[in-house]
Amino acid sequence: MVANFFWGKRDGKKGISWIAWRDVCKPKSQGGLGILTGEELNKLGLIRTCWKLRENDNLASSIIRDKYLSNRRSVNFDRGSHCWRSLGIGWELLKKSLRWEIGSGKNINFWNDWWIGPKPLRQMCSGPLQEEEENWTVAHVLNNDKQWSLNIPSTLILEIKNSERIGEDSLVSNWALEGGKMDSQSILKVLRGGEDREGDWDWLWRIKSHPKLSLFLWQLWWGRIACNENLAKRMATVNPHCCFCPSSIETPDHIFRHCIRATEV
Ligand SMILES: [Zn+2]
User: Fold this and answer.
1) CA of 254 to the centre of ligand 1 (A)
2) Residue 255, helix vs strand vs coil
3) Residue 73 backbone zone (phi > 0: left; psi -120 to 50: alpha; other: beta)
4) Cα(232) to centroid of ligand 1, in Å?
5) Over the stretch 88-110, which tens digit does the pLDDT of each residue have?
6) Which of 72, 78, 120, 172 is deepest in the core (most CB within 10 A)?
7) 92 phi, psi to nearest 5 deg
8) Which is higher by pLDDT, 20 or 165?
9) Distance (Å, rounded) from C-alpha 141 to C-alpha 112?
10) Helix (H, G, I), strand (E, B) or coil at 59
11) Looking at residue 79, what is its pLDDT?
């Protein structure tokens, strides 16, 4: 539905989807427009619900928070109503975007929870883990001088050895805004697997121009504008040649660089 709205209608017919929707939804730095997919919107909604339950001070929120959304790891969200299972999905997603502050370290999984560095250690190391290693807690490793089987980046090893321990294990956010509001953009970066890295397309969005022109340049850079060559590929009836240069195919490059009309400008 969003895609249909985006590509519009012409003469009552559905507009042409010039670029695959999965590419349109990619971050701007990677060639998309950063539009949220339905799945991402759904996940953000679930995370927001759990975040509000953690932050609100009313009685219902505090009961659910203290009983189920605390640092305990044994709550079973697999059984129950659709609403309950959705809450479980939201809570797991929220935990992934929260960072642990180490207290005893007994509640924190050494590899899979985010407690040091920019993301969970498991995402920074490749290779298989032994079953026993998979379940190590931070306390287990720090108190027993363990040797791990995967190569952890050297900068992190020192950080792990010097990690501070404060009170109880607790989940903290790097993205909470003033007044307990949630920064959806930061959460989205976590959902999409880390920081939005610098990409080949950033130059396009640094150009100061009217949004419509930026959008046209974006489409042009993909080579998917409504030139005769592209129209002919989608509608067999269109002549792919340029109406000013009958011997040339009207490609995006032809329109802006080689067409006799373009050279006159
Ligand atoms: Zn031409």
Assistant:
1) 6
2) helix
3) alpha
4) 16
5) 888 888 877 788 888 888 888 88
6) 120
7) -65, -40
8) 20
9) 14
10) helix
11) 79
Strand partners, 241: 249
Q: Identify residue 103 by its one-letter amino acid code.
A: G
CA–centroid distance, 248 to ligand 1, in Å, is 7
Quote the ligand 1 centre to 213 CA distance (angstroms). 22
Q: How far is the CA of 196 from the centre of ligand 1 (A)?
A: 40
Q: Assess contact for 260 and 245: CB atoms under 8 A.
A: yes
Q: Is the dihedral of CA 95, 184, 32, 7 positive or negative?
A: positive
Residue type for 133, please? E
* CA 32 – ligand 1 centroid, Å: 29
Lowest mean pLDDT among 122-126, 196-200, 241-245: 196-200
Distance of CA 45 to the CA centre of its chain: 14
User: Which position has the token pair 């952890």?
Assistant: 152
The pLDDT tens digits of the residues spanning 128-164 come to 878 788 888 888 887 776 666 677 777 777 777 777 7
